[in-house]
Fold these 2 entries.
Entry 1:
Amino acid sequence: MAQNKDFIFADSMNDLPEKVSFAWKSPSNIALVKYWGKTDPQIPKNASISFTLSESYTKTTAHFTKKKQSGKSEISVTLGGEKMDSFVPKIAQFLERINVYTPYLSNYHVEIITENSFPHSSGIASSASGMSALALCVMSLEKVLKPSLSASFFKQKASFLARLGSGSACRSIEGELVVWGKHENVVGSSDLLGIKFSEKIDPVFHHYQDSILLIDKGEKVVSSTVGHNLMIDHPFAEQRFEQANQNLARLMSTLKNGDLDTFMSIVESEALTLHAMMLTSNPYFILMKPNTLKVIEKIWNYRKETGVPVCFTLDAGANVHVLYPKKWKAEVDQFIQSELVKYCQNNHVIQDQSGMGAVQLA
Ligand code: DP6
């Protein structure tokens, strides 16, 4: 069982390279059983599982330059060619948080050059892909300092560090499905990092399609961080955490036996329960938009009329993820074009599918 202390770097820092750069491409992920509620430091209140995506990703290059003298590390961030000073405090906080595990970083200035495959204001959170890409760049530096580090430790620690940046980011290192959070039915599962769901899944779930309908690209009225915190005194919190763990157990069975009807009912119930938690928080809030509900209704009607196994899930926002097996791509594409696209801002849909996780670019 992984423990915090396993991830403390305790090797020599005598031979630090002067300047090194690494680049990683890391995807976003979409949770099927949701993480909503946590304790410090980024410990989830229940286990979650997600599909790793392939087309929604962040590419990050990190340049580490050794400091000439001690003092604060300089951090700079460029997103899509634009200097983003507003991102610096968040990155600084992340680097501070991981410092006990990555003490070598204190010797470096860090220049981060990053770009997302999806538009900045699309309502798709870039924290999962962004934080995992950065954590991987840090691990590449660690690998230079300790070449004997194993591939599996590399991934585990990358997930561990990514979690400290954003909880869901720990589920973006590998694919196609990742479990995060201790669960009695998942061997090796941990609150500290995401692990690949390694049981054999029914082929219907390979390359599972996710057409992301961009219903609302505006700034969210309540951030995920605030939302998580509202679970602390939430009247339904305990039942919710228990339900999520039960849903994960049931969902795993469907992943193995290919029972799509049960899969869809769990996934949709999870999405609606996530938003039900928001509706019943104090203060309460709503992240869905009228078009979110219109799309859900259309999906239900279409599924009933045609029998095509298409369902939806939601993140902490108004966008709708339309999920279905690859085999039904042509039919669902047509349905989306004729019935759903009109509810999206600027008719914007991102065509994504489950994928295998992050890759090193340089
Ligand atoms: C609704 O991972 O964004 O997408 O840990 O505060 O960074 P922080 O939160 P974040 O929360 C994601 C919440 C969710 C559900 C999920 O991805 O499991």
Entry 2:
Amino acid sequence: MKHIAVLGSTGSIGTQTLDVVRKHPEMMDVVALACGSRIDLIEKQAREFCPEIVAVYDEKAASDLAVRLADTNVKVLGGMDGLIEMCRIPTADVVVTAIVGMIGIRPTIAAIEAGKDIALANKETCVCAGHIILPLAAEKGVKILPVDSEHSAIFQALQGRAGSEIRRILLTASGGPFRGRTREELMNVTAAQALAHPTWSMGPKITVDSASMVNKGLEVIEAKWLFDVDVDQIEVVIQPQSIIHSAVEYEDGSILAQMGPSDMRIAIQYALTYPLHLPSPAVPLDFRTLAGLELGVPDNETFRGLPLAISAIRTGGSMPVVFNASNEWANAIFRRGDISFLQIYDVIEDTMSRHSVIAAPTVDEIFAVQDEIDAYCEEKYNS
Ligand code: NAD
Ligand code: MG
């Protein structure tokens, strides 16, 4: 039996993780859940899965939940301390990091320190603290298993090939809802338009990141950390149907790709059943849809999310933190309608150009950088 803790159980990845657990009751169970504030849903999840611990970041929501769950044996915790305790729960084998944003850094580190394997969806943590979590995971002997569909595809294409030499990683991108548009055509796009993703159904933050190609930029940095490759070895390929989830090209010229339906539950499940491919809740791919498979190159002039990320990781140190934190700020403010879509790039570029790089930032330094960026952006772009 694999005992699972789900950090961010009420979101898109979290609820799909619970679908995977429902499919395999004989091999998986849930020992802990956590969310930001959606206690209606987490209460239902707690009643269905009977975890030992449920953590809610919002303290008021946590006390309300404790009252609602008073008839159960579930221990309810609040705040960052609650998330950290939930990730350290002695009975868990693996923590699925389905939380959104760099708020996931401290809980993820706590889980690794406690010896838990990590099924990593929370890419912002990898981008900002890859230099901390990858060496720590190696030291503790814990596995970091990718959940992001592209990284799961790459991970699958790497199986059983130890000693082989990789030429390139081909990281696929759908191109999002605005693929093919010009800068002029992007001037007045709204959050509602950015939130209508053509192939994937995901949480709002990553959906906007997909529209801006910032998501692909975060994924290049994530791939660099997870697979220990040089950023020059990663090539982004547009695949609008999201059927080829990514590929590895070896030195002999062979390209091994992983394909499948656009259903995150396949990648989530593989992280939990690795190295086994077992029946999953996903509907199998209809091969007639493969007839329309297209491939292309990204438009880096219009969608600057990718080149800005590559520049951040080339600079290294705290620069990827700046890329990520300024995007987290801009993404949220764009969704509120307070800045335009193209201003997301201006905010990232501006904050990156002002930053004095810290070589290997500590966790405290990472959050200090975020605080500075939030204060600067509020003042300059939102007052
Ligand atoms: P989402 O917005 O649907 O869900 C986010 C979850 O995080 C929710 O359960 C929410 O309660 C929780 N959360 C937010 N702030 C919190 C806080 N302060 N404390 C505790 N919990 C908090 O997001 P999502 O789309 O599921 O994405 C989650 C992560 O997975 C992101 O890092 C995203 O980039 C990554 N990811 C998502 C997908 C996808 O298909 N949705 C694919 C690949 C990677
Ligand atoms: Mg992805």
